[in-house]
Amino acid sequence: MSINWFPGHMAKARRQIEESLKKVDVVIEILDARIPYASKNPMLDHVIGDKPRVVVLNKKDMANNKETDRWINRLKAEGVYPIALNGKEPNVLKKIENTVVEATKEIFERMERKGINPRAIRAMIVGIPNVGKSTIINNIAKRKVAKTGNTPGVTKAQQWIKAGTKMELLDTPGVLWPKFEDESIGQKLSLTGAIKDNVVNLDDIAIFALKFMQEHHLDALKQFYNINIDENTEIVEIFDAIGQSRGFKMSGNEIDYERVTERVIYDTRDAKIGRFTFDLAESAE
Ligand code: GDP
Q1: Cβ(140)–Cβ(96) under 8 Å?
Q2: Which of 76, 77, 156, 277 is the most core-located residue (most Cβ within 10 A)?
Q3: What is the mean pLDDT of the chain?
Q4: Pairing between strand 121-127 and 167-170?
């Protein structure tokens, strides 16, 4: 489920994140490991400023491992504290805790030197819709706290939840808007489920997915749909081949392109064809 964002939502979300930021020592930004560039909110860097930041590449189980490693290196070089996670796994709390401790080490050492009593590290989770914020909060809190669903910004009264022994977490994530400016970013957001299918042209999404796989993962594509194509096959012929192979036909034996389109989108989105990363660490900017 995602939101249609309007300027009012965006202003409100920004204001509320700014308010919450005053209460925390560290921000935990959740990105989708399949699209670490496209799933970044465009304004967040500016609002966070110098505050320590942990960046979670979530859904790593659906992304390409090598590419995730490259992203981790790139993010380290950018001066944030990255980790790759499957938000549904049991070790999430430990991994996040370790990284949060590392990210805030200097602040807490400074506090100690000044004789300030040690206290829990305060953190909040932020990110665009569908990246796994609620899943991670619920996992960390070992109970259902954040409503899975999306409201711009942070709406209900926030509470601190204990997360392990060293950390306190705001129980409501900051929900931020995705990037809209660029068509290919929109296609990646749609392909991973971060924006609603009804705000984009589904044909374009399926074409984008097929072109990406034809260029980068041809064997996986051929095997999954049991089709015989190569790197030069025209896209419309790939649609035909999938329709033939899957038996998606209308009366008169015509290929049912709508069904092919939907199938390709869902199979890609659910990582059934393979684990793909659509933003390459080397070239995304
Ligand atoms: P939010 O909108 O950011 O709070 O995202 P949710 O926590 O509601 O997660 C969106 C969808 O992604 C849900 O269907 C989750 O079950 C799924 N999800 C979250 N984290 C992971 C993950 O690491 N791996 C996989 N495969 N699915 C995940």
Answers
A1: yes
A2: 277
A3: 92
A4: parallel
Residue type, 63: A
CA torsion angle for 65, 205, 135, 27 (degrees, to 10)? 80
Which candidate, 244, 243, 278, places its Cα nearest to that of 262?
A: 243
Nearest protein Cα to ligand 1, atom 22: 59
Beta-sheet pairing, 167-170 with 160-163? antiparallel
Q: Into which CATH architecture does domain 7-175 fall?
A: 3-Layer(aba) Sandwich (3.40)
User: Which CATH code is given to the segment(s) 201-269?
Assistant: 1.10.1580.10
Higher per-residue confidence, 159 vs 62: 62
Report whether residue 58 contacts ligand 1, using a CB cutoff of 6 Å. yes
Residue 129 CB–ligand 1 contact under 6 Å: yes
Confidence label for 284 from pLDDT (cuts 50, 70 and 90): confident
Contact 132 CB / ligand 1 (< 6 Å) = yes
pLDDT in tens, 197-250: 777 889 999 999 999 999 999 999 999 999 999 999 999 999 999 999 999 999
